[in-house]
Design the sequence.
């Protein structure tokens, strides 16, 4: 039992053997310790050094003969105290490192994009849950929903569009470019005044709806099954795409 407990305190097999032998004999010379444990004397000295370092054994210098003695068994707590002190020092180092690293990262605008993949069965729930997030992000940018819309998205998710315009933030407006289609003529009749659409003169073979909503880029593929969506959250990428679609809006 004691062997297993000491192992859990990181005692080696030889350290356990030597430590228990010293405990049983109260004090003992290294040569006698070598005889009892059958460990050669040079190894005994090395093991004793480790036990002294652990704080459980000491050298008795009160007599001319060099004896080894075990410290009170309560001194085993020294092992924990040392580890606690090491952890405290490491915490201080980590705190200092974090503070130094903040100075480095605070001057950089780069941040890795956060990307989410949404499968067909989750797309509508995802859009409804994210709409308030997108709205808030757009309001902090230019309050405009930019991009291209594949007409097949409207064919499959017209009910989402109806839902969105019943609860969208008042200042939000939408400016999307799309190809001419029957479904868009149907949507025009619903008269959502903040939903502005422009049409390419020729059909452009885009196959994915692409929205720029504040700091988010959302792409939804609905022209063939299975449908899927990808959301990219990155301010720098979104800013560049927004400027591109602003230019396209003015030129279409």
Sequence:
């Amino acid at each position: 039992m004691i062997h297993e407990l000491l192992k859990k305190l990181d005692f080696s097999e030889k350290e356990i053997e030597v430590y228990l032998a010293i405990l049983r004999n109260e004090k003992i010379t290294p040569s006698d310790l070598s005889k009892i444990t059958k460990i050669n004397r040079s190894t005994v000295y090395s093991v004793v050094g480790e036990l002294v370092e652990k704080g459980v054994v000491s050298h008795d210098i009160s007599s001319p003969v060099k004896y080894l003695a075990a410290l009170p068994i309560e001194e085993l707590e020294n092992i924990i105290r040392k580890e606690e002190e090491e952890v405290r020092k490491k915490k201080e180092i980590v705190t200092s490192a974090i503070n130094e690293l903040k100075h480095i990262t605070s001057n950089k605008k780069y941040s890795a994009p956060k990307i989410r993949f949404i499968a067909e069965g989750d797309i509508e729930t995802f859009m409804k849950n994210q709409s308030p997030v997108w709205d808030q992000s757009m309001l902090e940018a230019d309050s405009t929903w930019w991009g291209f819309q594949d007409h097949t998205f409207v064919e499959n998710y017209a009910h989402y569009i109806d839902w969105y315009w019943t609860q969208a933030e008042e200042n939000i407006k939408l400016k999307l470019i799309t190809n001419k289609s029957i479904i868009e003529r149907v949507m025009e009749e619903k008269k959502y005044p903040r939903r502005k659409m422009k049409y390419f003169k020729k059909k452009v073979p885009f196959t994915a709806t692409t929205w720029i909503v504040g700091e988010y880029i959302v792409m939804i593929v609905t022209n063939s099954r299975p449908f899927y969506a990808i959301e990219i959250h990155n301010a720098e990428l979104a800013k560049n795409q927004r400027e591109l679609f602003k230019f396209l809006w003015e030129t279409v």
